[in-house]
């Protein structure tokens, strides 16, 4: 039963495009009917279940050293005369808005440095390589499910609050 749950879990996650599976041995060729029992369909063929593993893309950026630091302050919205950064802080790590937020809201988003330092990467969810976006917000309900907790800690630490 446990083997079925694990296989079913992998099947659900793969069906949603959140992960890619790999094989630690040479995969067997697929048959016209798919993969035989005891094997899992991976990119290169059918892999024995005991040799199947989850391929996680590297999303950890290399720390950088900053040698100069401009004044650290958020920009002002000319229409209101105040900064909108606190209200928009949730966009700080969104890949679509990150560049703009670094420019407009460096203080709120903690992109400022006070001198030469090495900064650790911020906590973030992994990106689905098929869609270019994270599936984590849609899967948040799985964060505390004992069956998925380990996977969610790895794939969705920000959404699940594991940072």
Automatic annotation (TrEMBL):
SMART domains: ShKT. Residues 72-112, 123-163 form the ShKT domain. PANTHER family: PROTEIN CBG11138, SHKT DOMAIN-CONTAINING PROTEIN. This is ShKT domain-containing protein. The keyword Signal applies. InterPro entries: ShKT_dom. Residues 1-17 form the signal peptide. Keywords: Disulfide bond, Signal.
